[in-house]
Specification:
The strands form four sheets. Strands 1, 2, 3, 4, 5, 6 and 16 form a seven-stranded mixed beta sheet that branches. The model has no long low-confidence stretch (mean pLDDT 93). Strand 12 and strand 13 form a beta hairpin. This protein has two domains: 177 residues, 3-Layer(bba) Sandwich (FAD/NAD(P)-binding domain); 96 residues, 3-Layer(bba) Sandwich (FAD/NAD(P)-binding domain). By secondary structure, it is an alpha/beta fold. The protein has ten helices and 16 strands. Helix 1 packs parallel to helix 2. InterPro entries: FAD/NAD-bd_sf, FAD/NAD-binding_dom, Ferredoxin-NADP_redctase_2. Keywords: Flavoprotein, Oxidoreductase. One of its GO terms (molecular function) is oxidoreductase activity.
Length: 353
């Protein structure tokens, strides 16, 4: 175990929401740590969709790596590790324990996300026929044969939604008894969606690595470009629950508009909270959360009570309200940003005698 380091903000989880939170808290002058076990939904992306300014050919890992480098460049500390425990101290701060990291922090931001429940194989590769985000990936299936997999209410609804993009939609229950309501059953029957109840026996891929077809238990083979499994989510809420944060009925963490949970000093952002599971949405949540942390933690303006407690007017020497570590890093960063570009051709010319 390393020596304990003190921070104002510690972000647990390194997806788009957590990274954006850390970006804001660091640039707003708060010593920030990020502890990230790695992986997550964004890391699985072969291509990035619906993020303005980011080319589609950018992989999830490339996107996250660039973001991590930005956060560290501004002065945050990044740790690749798994947070095993968080405990509230008597002074209201938190002890955060990971494998090789020990942190004391004033605020905790949980960005631990969830795991999609995967159906049994055979399944195509994620991003090459198996897709988890309807709003991200439906566009790529315009005029393509598509499956939706599952037997619940969500699967039936998504199958009908996909008719906005293609007229070839199959709903694969894989032998499970349908659990959608009678009203949804009537609605589904009125839409041109074919419900296939047979279990999948085998799968064929094309030369490009994408799904080509499924063969079912009755011997029928049906071609698909790809589709969406709808089996629910496992939310990573153990740390939140231990700290006393309340959960919603769907398993997400209850938060206000700025990510504050019902536990003081504990925030949550991203897929672990209610709302659309989208990178731009997560980034917006992270920005709001980072700004709220700044409002709660910033030194100035001091209240009248604080001014009286410290004995009167504030000395100029008390400013700026930022740690020496971040102050130095900001100076370096701003000097680098302000440096004029070097003309390599001119620099290569020999000096006159």
């Amino acid at each position: 175990m390393s020596d304990t380091t003190e921070y104002e903000v510690t972000v647990v989880g390194g997806g788009p929401a957590g990274l954006t939170t850390a970006l804001y808290t660091t640039r707003l002058g708060h010593d920030t740590a990020m502890i990230n076990r790695g992986g997550g939904r964004a890391a699985m992306m072969l291509d990035t969709h619906n993020v303005i300014g980011v080319p589609e050919e950018t992989s999830g890992n490339e996107f996250l790596q660039t973001a991590r480098e930005q956060v560290e460049e501004y002065g945050a500390d990044y740790h690749q590790d798994f947070v095993s425990d968080i405990e509230r101290r008597e002074d209201g701060r938190f002890d955060v324990t990971a494998g090789s990291v020990s942190v004391v922090t004033e605020h905790v931001v949980l960005a631990t996300g969830f795991s999609d429940v995967r159906p049994d194989p055979p399944l195509p590769r994620t991003g090459r026929g198996l897709h988890w985000c309807l709003h991200c990936d439906a566009y790529m299936f315009v005029d393509q044969p598509v499956f939706v997999m599952g037997a619940g209410e969500a699967a039936a609804k998504v199958a009908m939604i996909m008719l906005n993009f293609t007229d070839e939609v199959d709903l694969l229950t894989r032998g499970d008894e349908p659990e959608w309501s009678d009203e949804t059953d009537r609605q589904l029957a009125a839409h041109p969606v074919e419900v296939v109840h047979q279990e999948i026996e085998s799968m064929e891929k094309g030369e490009d690595g994408w799904l080509k077809s499924f063969t079912f238990a009755d011997g029928e083979t049906r071609e698909y470009r790809g589709g969406f499994p709808m089996y629910g989510s496992d939310y990573n809420t153990a740390l939140a629950e231990k700290l006393g944060a309340e959960l919603n009925d769907d398993g997400t963490i209850a938060v206000d508009d700025h990510g504050q949970t019902t536990a003081e000093g504990v925030f949550a952002v991203g897929d672990i909270t209610p709302g659309h599971n989208q990178i731009p949405t997560a980034m917006g949540e992270g920005a709001r959360c980072g700004i709220q942390n700044h409002y709660d933690l910033r030194t100035f303006p001091m209240s009248l009570d604080e001014i009286d407690e410290q004995g009167g007017d504030i000395e100029r020497s008390a400013a700026p309200g930022i740690s020496e570590t971040l102050r130095g890093r900001a100076r370096e960063h701003n000097a680098e940003a302000a440096a004029p570009p070097v003309d390599l051709d001119e620099a290569a010319e020999p000096a006159d005698d």
